[in-house]
Amino acid sequence: MLDLKPITHHNSMIPEHILNRKGARSFKDLDQEVIDYLNQGLIETANLMEWLAVDQLKLLKLILEELDKPQWYDSFYEVVSNQKKPSANANAKVIGMTFSQLTNDGKIIDYLSNHTSDIPRCWAAQYYSAIEMSITERLHTIKPFAADPHFGVREVAIFATKEYIIQDLDPAIMILSNWTKDDDENIRRYAVETTRPIGVWTKKIDDLKESPEKAIDILEPLKSDTSKYVKDAVGNWLNDASKTRPDWVGNICNQWKKESSNKDTAYIIKKALRTINK
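Structure (tokenized):
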């Protein structure tokens, strides 16, 4: 019987110059040695450039061998190859969805969810996006991915849930408004970022473009948050809303200015008003 404990590779096995790298700024700067480590799942990606450079099929082939499921590879190869618009993000999505069609073995998904490499953790987040569940279960299930220490997994957690949040907006806002009290800045940031009316690379939320006040219970508790990660998300959320409801955003910012004179609120307001003040 295969022992499905996630493989965690001791840092002592990885050279210092690999562990301490900054991450290439362009494709031409990518180091083949780094790519080899990434494609073997031995290290996490250091930035978006590396994340885009991983050969997910090559990594998947190795992982399927570790899982004693090499016979699954052809199914994955087919769906990845048949995409009309392939991209790293699309690859992660179809690989996660294909796992959901091939297995419901919790051990396999735990293995992916706890892998050293961030890429299998992205697949696991997308696996859950393909499973039928209520919005309450869905948000509960995605929470560890929203809290992941890796930026890529946190972004995929947003991609994997945003459409479901749009479908069940009111209960989702109710749940996420409680997440604003979480000690983890990644969880607080997820609550904001995943409900952004326009956002980046994700579906727009027409309901919140027209009625941004619906999400005030998420925004209000964070108006003086000390985390830059959260402040940026709140400022960007309000800036999104200012494109369709500048009146409402202006009123909220004036209200917050009166209620809170600290530098954190001032930072959010400046970011929120950048389109209005152009």
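The chain has a mean pLDDT of 94. Residues 1-131 form one domain.
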